[in-house]
Every structure is written in C-alpha cells, then in structure tokens.
Automatic annotation (TrEMBL):
Protein known as: Glycosyl transferase family 8
Domain of life the protein comes from: Bacteria
Pfam families: Glyco_transf_8
Gene3D superfamilies: Spore Coat Polysaccharide Biosynthesis Protein SpsA, Chain A (3.90.550.10)
Amino acid sequence: MQERFAATYTKLHVFRLDFLDRAVYVDSDAVVRKNIDDLFAGDDFAAVPDAGLDAPDPDVFNSGVFAFTPSYRTFESMMSRLAHTPSYDGGDQGFLNVFFDTWRVLPPEDNTTKRIFSHHPALFHDEDVRVLHYVGKKPWEPTGGDDRYDALDVEWLDHLTDTEKNELIRDLRRQTDLSTTTAEAPAEVLRAAKAHLAQGRAEHAARLLADTGRKRRLTTAEQRQLAVANMRLGRRREALRTLERAKGPIATAAVGSGILAQYYRNRRK
C-alpha cells in the first residue's frame, strides 16, 4: 500500500533470535536518548500506542519499538499466517497488531513519534522522551522536508560524529548528481527505446522502459513507445493500460492506427 513499507516485513526475523532471553527492537529511524534497560523486564510483548496525525490509539501499537521474548515457534507461527493475515497499512505494523491481539502498553516516552511534536504538542514532553522516532520523512533525506521538524532534525544531526556528517554530505551530493542525471534521462531513454524498436528488439525496448518506470514517472512519449513495444509483443492489455495512463496527447501517428482502434473499441465496451 505504501512503497516505504515494502521491506519492513524483514523485521519479523528478530523473533527467530531465540538464543536471547529477551530483546528490544528499535527502528533505525529512532534515536535512543536515555537508558531503556528496564524494557528488558518481563516475558511478554510490549509496545507504545501508535500516534501520528491522530491522537494516540490505545488499541493499536507502533512497531518502531517493542520489547519481546524471541521464540522460533512464534516466528514459524507468523510465517504460517502471513499469506492470509490482513495488514491495515500494508506493512509489518498492521500485521503485528493482528498477530499480537493482546499486548502490554508502554508509556509514550518509550517511542515518541515526531508527529506528536507537531500535531499534539501538549503531549510532547521533551525532557521525558527516551526514544524519539523519526516517522515519515527522514532528517537525512535531501528533499521534501518540513519546517515544523527543524528542531528535531537538528537534534538528529547532533547525534552524528564529524565523520558521519562528512559521509552524509558526500551521500547527499551523490544523490543530487543522480537526480540531475535522471532529469536528463528521458531524451536518452526515448532515443534508446526507439532504436530498439527500429531494429526489431521490442523486448529490449519494453524492458528498458519498464525499468525506467520503476525509477521515475514515464513521460507521455515514453509511454507511447512502451505501448508500441507491448503491442508488438502481443501484450494488448498492457498496451491499453499504458495508453489509459498516458491519456491526453496519446492520439498521435507514433501510436499506430491499430492501437488506437483497439483502444477505442475497449473504451466503448
């Protein structure tokens, strides 16, 4: 449901670590500000009620921080239920909330999401926060930040060593260079796709455009070429779906009369 949750199910592997008597899981976008050794007490599953745009929900926990007792039997049970257990957010949190229908409530300071800072300031007590969780946009991402979180982002930077800050700057520069290259990519991709099609390599053209579409949104011209490639490969449904996405200036000679005829026939149906 959300691309950022695509790999979060890997988190479930922590339940396999049954050589440990007790464990505390902490997301990599969270900062431990104070000692949390007391979380290792107990033999149950414990977590903090989830809070974001809405106020904390006592019936739903946030899976960014939780205390648990590793058990391979528990892990196997999770694996057996994955295929038929719904997740309200498409990620591990939705699944775990169904799997652990009973859980011990930890205080909010053990997993304070940054959205409490902006959306529920009356609930944010800075001096009490033990784990600060940078949900959503991360402080190390180069674009799309939110001024409301400037103070918290600066605090995250304060946790970095000078070497880590230098590495971060280098990474951001590389990302900037990559985005500049990507901005120039459409013309190059289009030329390559047309060349493949001209030489009868429709499969190569389709693969090139499909790979590009996973990295960024295809231009209308690129979508037309993808439709042509799919039609030549006999993938009429895929070609029509591409035309539907392109909309607007799709009726050009480059598309081909056969594609348009099939397209309008399907529209009438």
